[in-house]
Automatic annotation (TrEMBL):
<dbReference type="InterPro" id="IPR007110">
    <property type="entry name" value="Ig-like_dom"/>
</dbReference>
<dbReference type="InterPro" id="IPR053073">
    <property type="entry name" value="IL11/IL27_subunit_beta"/>
</dbReference>
<dbReference type="InterPro" id="IPR003530">
    <property type="entry name" value="Hematopoietin_rcpt_L_F3_CS"/>
</dbReference>
<dbReference type="InterPro" id="IPR036179">
    <property type="entry name" value="Ig-like_dom_sf"/>
</dbReference>
<dbReference type="InterPro" id="IPR003598">
    <property type="entry name" value="Ig_sub2"/>
</dbReference>
<dbReference type="InterPro" id="IPR013783">
    <property type="entry name" value="Ig-like_fold"/>
</dbReference>
<dbReference type="Pfam" id="PF00041">
    <property type="entry name" value="fn3"/>
</dbReference>
<feature type="compositionally biased region" description="Pro residues">
    <location>
        <begin position="302"/>
        <end position="316"/>
    </location>
</feature>
<dbReference type="Pfam" id="PF24031">
    <property type="entry name" value="FN3_IL27B_N"/>
</dbReference>
<keyword id="KW-0325">Glycoprotein</keyword>
<keyword id="KW-0393">Immunoglobulin domain</keyword>
<feature type="compositionally biased region" description="Low complexity">
    <location>
        <begin position="317"/>
        <end position="340"/>
    </location>
</feature>
<feature type="domain" description="Ig-like">
    <location>
        <begin position="3"/>
        <end position="73"/>
    </location>
</feature>
<dbReference type="InterPro" id="IPR036116">
    <property type="entry name" value="FN3_sf"/>
</dbReference>
<protein>
    <submittedName>
        <fullName>Ciliary neurotrophic factor receptor</fullName>
    </submittedName>
</protein>
<keyword id="KW-0732">Signal</keyword>
<feature type="domain" description="Fibronectin type-III">
    <location>
        <begin position="190"/>
        <end position="288"/>
    </location>
</feature>
Length: 340
């Protein structure tokens, strides 16, 4: 059992009244007679929603979430407050969606659940797990409120597991049951610390390394295999490499000078499914510095050591011809095999 239901207490000592969406709601003013004269307030103001009053009763018509609030009734004519009701509008739960997964094989597995349709009121979840007709201990996750953990009672069991999750609130309940074998729920977490590094003087290579997921208990006894994918940012098509029991790979066919995006997934060597992809990393292969084209300044006059901006340039002689300036723009030959 995984308790997630908050205590049914209301502020200011008021009682809590849960009611269904779109229905009519009747609230009674404490223990007063049904024909007593009272005045109703909601959150300290007059009740403006569609309603009618019958003696000491307040009847709201076709309620929705806007009718939530703290309702107070006062006895006439002295105005003494006789009751407070915290009205909460919601719905009964529908069947929860349940999934189970082992990312710590063979240690154990966890099950998660959620409601596709919110109930708008506190909802509890009762979880039971059966294996070989025995009930297993279920431990609530300290971070995820809709998750519980179960230890495998044995490894390589041929008996299926049966998990039932029942959603319960003040307006109703609904259940979902799933059945599975342990080998079908094994799915590691993604590899960690993926690093891609250019290799000096190799314009088409990238060295990729990573760590096995830290949640995997024993990679020596239960080894993992890996699936690496990579592509240049300028293209949509991935290239793939599957690796057995290795946490490094050298990409040898990268396009020179192009930035790459790289991800890795993991899987048990024999059972289960592939993990999600790791966080993407970006890297660019080694790039040689462009070669500079040398030139001389022999054809240029020496700079004036004492320039005077107000001094006029010397007159040109009749036989003077203009100096031709060489083209200083270097011509580079592209090495990228991609053409755009």
């Amino acid at each position: 059992f995984c308790p997630t239901f908050p205590a049914p207490l209301s502020s200011l000592g008021a009682s809590i009244q849960y009611e269904r969406m779109d229905g009519d709601v009747t609230m009674r003013c404490g223990s007063l007679d049904s024909d007593a004269s009272v005045t109703w307030k909601v959150n300290g103001t007059d009740v403006k929603a569609h309603h009618r009053e019958e003696g000491s009763r307040l009847i709201l018509m076709e309620v929705d979430l806007s009718n939530n609030g703290l309702y107070s009734c006062f006895q006439n004519p002295n105005g003494e407050r006789r009751d407070q009701i915290n009205l909460r509008i919601g719905t009964s739960p529908r069947e929860p969606t349940v999934t189970c997964r082992s990312n710590t094989y063979p240690k154990g597995f966890y099950c998660s659940w959620h409601l596709q349709h919110p109930t708008s009121i506190p909802t509890d979840f009762d979880v039971t797990v059966l294996h070989n007709q025995e009930s297993l201990e279920v431990t609530r996750d300290v971070v995820h409120k809709n998750r519980c953990h179960v230890l495998f009672p044995e490894v390589f069991s041929s008996y299926p597991y049966r998990v039932n999750v029942t959603a319960v609130n003040a307006l109703g309940k609904a259940s979902t049951t799933i059945t599975f074998e342990e080998i079908n729920i094994v799915k590691p977490d993604p590899p960690e610390r993926v690093v891609a590094t250019p290799i000096p003087s190799n314009v088409r290579r990238l060295e990729v390394t990573w760590n096995s997921p830290s949640t995997w208990p024993d990679v020596e006894i239960f080894p993992l295999k890996y699936f690496l994918r990579y592509r240049p940012l300028i293209r949509d098509q991935w290239q793939h490499v599957e690796l057995t029991d290795s946490t490094a790979h050298t990409i040898t066919d990268a396009y020179a000078g192009k930035e790459y995006i790289i991800q890795v997934a993991a899987k048990d060597m024999e059972i289960g499914t592939w993990s999600d992809w790791s966080v993407a990393v970006h890297a660019t292969p080694w790039m040689d510095k462009p070669q500079q084209i040398p030139f001389t300044t022999d054809t240029y006059p020496n700079p004036d050591p004492n320039p005077n901006p107000n001094r006029s340039p010397p007159p040109l002689s009749r036989n003077h011809s203009s100096v031709r300036t060489p083209n200083l723009t270097p011509t580079l030959t592209p090495t990228d095999p991609l053409h755009h």
